[in-house]
Here is the input.
Amino acid sequence: MPRRGKIFYGWWIALVCAVLNFVSGGTFVYAFTAFFNPIRQTFGWSAAITSIAFTLRGLETGLLDPFVGYLVDKVGPRKLIFFGWIVAGLGFLLMSRINSLWTFYGSFLVIATGFSFGSFVTVNAAIANWFIKKRSRAMTLMYVGFGASGILVPLVALSISQFGWRETTIYVGIGLWVIGIPLSLVMRHRPQQYGYLPDGETRETIGEPGSVVDRHSSSGIAEQDSGSSATDFTAKAAMRTRVFWLLSFAFFFQHIATSAIMVHIVPYLESVEVPTAIAATAVTGMTLGSLIGRLGFGLFGDFANKRYLIAIGFALQTIGVFIFSYIDADRVWLLVLFLITYGAGFGGPIPLRPALLADYFGTRSFGTIFGWMALVSMLGGVLSPVVAGWIFDVTGSYRLAWQIFALTTVPAIPLMLLAKPLIAKQEP
Here is the structure.
């Protein structure tokens, strides 16, 4: 049992999740764009063929997310994170030995499987269980890790240029074990199992009007736009609601552009003759821009309507992707506008999404519900990296791809605005 101290133990969990996100983002989620061209050029693969690995990752992650969500609801996050980071580290070691397209795909899937168990759904469920009133702030702290992880990308790119991509994958794999395995031991499932209450509430405050327990032991009916569902839904019950699908498809459309940009940002900038060093640094700038969005939107999310904030983020992302399509060697200055608009628009909804989901459906089956929603939204980004690579292979330019993906983001805005809170009590 974790010892009770001056700092609520939930904040230690949030901090550990932030570190895990920092490392996973800086070695795989964002940093793999730095591996893209070196690996592709080693074997002479096309951009589209290489991008299929990211499509397979999307399919694998999407299919695993509901299962991972179910497991985290049953056994908690510690065992899943411990297992996941062992597998992810092994995947990087396997990638150092690849000699064909199929071994590349296979090692990539091993890494993705590891992070499916050790990140994303798992850490979101952990935070949702430990916080209610301060959930957006806790999610923001956790996602600061992802936002800051971009500073690792230039280091990964430097290691690739100095030592080679095979050697760098070995360093990364060992680093994942050294960092992830010990941190997994800090994780705990639900605060009530250890004598805590969410948010660090005490027995003296739980009966006060407006407190967590007072609010969640009421009639079970949430007021419109109150920001809380006041009831715990099962996954089956949540998926029977209209709002579940509105939210799922809003993030489906958003994910189309983000998935492709995450894979091709460095190859794209190199294709328009932006120096590799600047291209790699742009990933850092994008994640730091997203950090501003995560902090600004996330910290404000406990006091404002999360739905409106997410819609604003989608609008900024759309503008940013259009700007992105016009960057070239003569208009490098547009990169600054892209980092500001896209970064904030991409980052802002990230901590608000799980917080909003927990507000609407409660935390009893949060992992499972989040996993099913992640499956739907992940499908939006399954093919977009391959489409972007194919358009480049055919036309020699990524511009058309970015303009198409900007347009596909637009439907996310009205879908999010229509996803109003549930007002009816859940059926028994």
Remarks:
- The two ends are 34 Å apart (CA to CA).
- Residues 319 and 341 are 7 Å apart (CA to CA).
- The chain has one domain: 9-418.
